[in-house]
Amino acid sequence: MLLLSILLLTSEAKGVHVECGKRPIFDGRVQYSRIIGGMEAEVGEFPWQVSIQARNEHFCGGSIINKWWIITALHCVVFEELLPTDLSVVLGSNDLRSSSVEIKGVTRIVLHKDFQRHNMDNDIALLLLDSPITFNGLTEPICMPRKPSPSMWHNCWVAGWGQTSSDDKNSMKTDLMKVPMIIMDWEKCSKAFPKLTKNMLCAGYENESFDACQGDSGGPLVCTTESDKTWYQVGIISWGKSCGQKNMPGIYTLLENYSLWIKKLSPSKRASKWWP
């Protein structure tokens, strides 16, 4: 606990310039060791991950892209017909029961105007917070994907507070869970998902029951490259046929197709430095 406190203070002291995609607490400590088939995330491992809540109940995930803005799946807020005043964003801890969580209100919801309910195309939304986030190691922004994207991402993960059993709605967790992911070939995936569009990607783990599930929607698929320790958000958890079926990937909004949309709709003074 003392080590964590020291790392937090050090991170705050260095907080003059914040880089996206970094994990100062997780990468600066000795790591030791449950989503479907998942494992519990370590402290500071996914500092960009947030819980989006209504009436103090978690229902979707999201990610920090800068100190004012959260990115998530559009269907999270549209299907529930939620207003900004209905929402709160919880950040700063893997444990939603922790007394150290930070809670932000939402003042604006930005929806992609071309969202298609029948096939979930353009499943992306932005949330404007009521006050800025102070980055401290437990809260950090994620980088938007590079252009052009690398031909192969090296290390990909999803995390969330959703169901850990596909047939048990009571299996939602208050501790953040993580699972490794592999991005699948788009052509191969489109044969299993005919309504797949070029704004989507497929990710899963062949021969394993690793997947995102209800309550994980809106959360980020994050990856690194083999030569780069910086983390980039590649996708947003969107939809799928079921949770945790072997050889059945989940579908994600392909974030690289929306970089210009995000820049345009996020105030430039607040957002421009978060894109490489």
Automatic annotation (TrEMBL):
BP terms from Gene Ontology: proteolysis
Gene3D superfamilies: Trypsin-like serine proteases
Residue ranges occupied by any Peptidase S1 domain in the UniProt entry: 35-267
Signal peptide: 1-15
One of the record's GO molecular function terms: serine-type endopeptidase activity
Keywords: Disulfide bond, Hydrolase, Protease, Serine protease, Signal
SMART domains associated with the record: Tryp_SPc (SM00020)
Claim: Metal-binding is one of the keywords in the record: no
Source taxon at top rank: Eukaryota
Protein name as catalogued: Serine protease 55 isoform X2
Source species: Zalophus californianus (California sealion)
Gene for this chain: PRSS55
